[in-house]
Each structure stands twice: as C-alpha cells, then as structure tokens.
C-alpha cells in the first residue's frame, strides 16, 4: 500500500531524515513514535505530499508520488496541527468546499452527516473562528475524511481534545480501519496509540530504530521498548 525507499530530507546543512524505509500494508493502523525532532512529522508531510523529500522514493498502490502526485493525494486524508479550515466559513461551508474539491457526491448530505457524527450539529451555521481548539479539531477530523480516503495521516490528532472528543476520534479511526483504510498516526500519546494501532514504528535521529506489533496491547511493554530505543539522547 505505502512503500518508501531511502527517504532522505535535508534542510540547509541539517539532515532530518536519514534513509527511511517503510512498508505499510493496506488496512494497517500504524503509530509513529519518537522524541521531539526525530523526524516523525516530516515523514508524514512527505507521504501527504506537503513537502518534498531530498531523495528517495514514495509509492502508494504502485503509484510514484513524484510522477502521480494528483492521483495519490486524492487517496489521502490529512489531519495536521493546522486545521486547514477557513475561519470565516461555517462547518457546513467548509466541508462542502473541501468535499467539492474531491468530487464528493451528495456533498451537502455527506457534510451534514459528518457534522452530526462529530457532535457539532448545533453549530452547523456558526463561523469556525468562534470555535474552541477541540471544536476546530472535530471539524478538521470531518474535513480529513469527507472523501472517504484510502489513507489517513494524523499528526498528533489527540492534542487538545477532551475525553469525549478523544473517544470520538478513536471511534473514527477504528471505523475507518474496519472499512479498509490505512492509517498512520504520529503521536506521543501511547495510551491512544495502543487502543487504535496494530503496529508501532519508533524513529530516532531521522532513522527507524524499531518496528513492533501491538500484540500485548500493554502500555508498560510499549513504554519499556520505547525507552530502550530513545534513552541516551
């Protein structure tokens, strides 16, 4: 589903990624773990087509990201630190706008359904600039999945969410997984990763240092493995 070979990213004289080789199967939910500055978000941004790698290959379903950028991006839903929402528009207007970009059929019906799913029906016609961080994140989640993407890329998705919104997001992740979507999630929240992900990839200093299956679903086990790899920074 997703393959990277020798992924390198440099900015000036600083090397951010040092040859990332990934192989993600269709339907996998994968957490990317690592300390601040390890290169986790950079990997996600390259896969999402937001920035370009300095060298290396990215293929999605056999399509080369460089050559087939448009076709690849249509398969992806991206939830980043930035909501990408237009703050003067309402949730309905935002979702209709993004839905039309992706050619979503019955876009207004789909938008209203998602607004209801994220628990913001009462605010359907309010401009999002008046929303709290958690409310903005809920609409951003809806924006990311409006076109029912085959691939979801989440960058610290649980940050700033209350418990109700965390449960809602986890339900979305699990539902999309059950429907066959492939999910990559950069996170520092081990508990949420354990609840939603099948696999953990640990990155340190721009390199993959471990690749674990979430068999035990035990936070102590994952924490111990993580600390073994990142200690001594």
From TrEMBL:
This is Heme ABC exporter, ATP-binding protein CcmA. GO terms for biological process: cytochrome complex assembly. The keyword Membrane does not apply. InterPro entries: AAA+_ATPase, ABC_transporter-like_ATP-bd, ABC_transporter_ATP-binding, ABC_transptr_haem_export_CcmA, P-loop_NTPase. Keywords: ATP-binding, Cytochrome c-type biogenesis, Nucleotide-binding, Transport. NCBIfam families: ccmA. Residues 2-230 form the ABC transporter domain. GO terms for molecular function: ATP binding; ATP hydrolysis activity; transmembrane transporter activity. The lineage of its organism: Bacteria, Bacillati, Bacillota, Bacilli, Bacillales. The keyword Repressor does not apply. It comes from Anaerobacillus arseniciselenatis. Belongs to the ABC transporter superfamily.
